[in-house]
Amino acid sequence: MAAKKGRKQVVRCLSCKKLRIKCDQVRPKCEYCAHTNRECIYPSDIPTSETNAEKDSPVEDIRRDLPLTQLTSVLSVSQLELRALKFFNDIGKLIVSYKNQRYIDNWEAVINPLSFQSPIVKKTLLATSSMLLSHFMNINTVDSKVLTSSFSVDSSQEAQAFFQTGTKYLQESIDERKHLLQDNSGFGIERIIVNDLITFGCLLIYNHKLVPLISATGYDVISMAKAYSDTRKMYSQSMTGLRLESLFFPKSNPILTCPPETNYWFTRVLEFEIVAFVSRNGNKSANMEEYFQALMDTFLLLKDACYAMAIVRFPFPLIACLTNFSDKYRQLLRNGDEFAFRLLFIYSCLCVISRIPLNRNDNIFVDYISEFKNIIFSKYGEFSYPIDRELYHLVIRTNFVVDFGDMTRFHPLQQCEPLMDLSWLERYIDSLEKTNTLLQCI
């Protein structure tokens, strides 16, 4: 009897092996990797030993410290880029997540695996890692001081190299996104959504004014946030099962919605001011009810974000407001509506005191805050609303920050009295309540 033949060994590329799908074993790229624009790496392509040159190099070979899955995915990147990735894995993820373990776990479960397979996600992660490292060249641990301090790009030549690498990859990923939108497969959609998530955080946390918050040209964060939001809405059904929603904070999440009867120090004031402003200026709007609703929806979005920040104890619900702004509110901004600008001013102030930008005094939020102040002063000679004056003082003249869990309890009369005179606030609120009562009677 003839000897039984042994089972033929199946050789698959690492991407197909990880997904447990059939691989046609074509080189240099199998059909799956070619279709999804992934790097196609076979086990036989992985070096089994270091070269003598690597052993003799005085630069630490960071690849030895990376898990095998990471090693096989970053073989084509430079030593500089490997260092940035290692920094992000060890330190950077704690900074961008504000040490929130739930977010770290979701990031590692969703984003890390995709960055090993998708060139655009890999580029965006390299951009984030490199730009972040340019701020924290000498940081070895992440404590409360790191999370509450203001950081600029390190002045060293090495840090500048990391920053340039980061901006290069960020631009490449933004350009590549346009091409990926033509791919309607689940793989393409997932890559776009994850790329948008990382890019959006990168632009807001350490933007370095690469893209302004809002601009007359339309090339700004407001427009990019709308593009990201539109993509998510367009492919919402295709996202089912991709585990991506856990990384976002949609306004529809009932757990993160503030109870209607709840008020904070600024929401009580702001709601009355919106009613009074619309009543005085309603004739300037083609549809007063629609105009009022656009402002109120934005106000409620900010209120929900503050509530959600206290629940999850980190600032991403506030960041997510930019993608959750309504199209009507965005159009008001484009039309130069004064109160819409004011709501964006208040939002920017909340972002600064919530420690979202790495550099407190030099970021897109402070730029907009200063621009808004100049617009209002050129028209009225001073701030139109006292609360704006105090918020401006709090952001520009002090280093005040608020703990995320304390955002719902943040009250100037209790926490900021040593910094400024707020004796006017209760009297001002009383006057607003009386005005609101009179308007309801008209």
UniProtKB/TrEMBL annotation:
GO terms for biological process: filamentous growth of a population of unicellular organisms in response to biotic stimulus; regulation of filamentous growth of a population of unicellular organisms in response to biotic stimulus; regulation of transcription by RNA polymerase II. Pfam families: Zn_clus. Transmembrane segments: none annotated. GO terms for molecular function: DNA-binding transcription activator activity, RNA polymerase II-specific; zinc ion binding. CDD domains: GAL4. Gene3D superfamilies: Zn(2)-C6 fungal-type DNA-binding domain. Residues 12-42 form the Zn(2)-C6 fungal-type domain. This is Zn(2)-C6 fungal-type domain-containing protein. It comes from Candida albicans (strain SC5314 / ATCC MYA-2876) (Yeast).
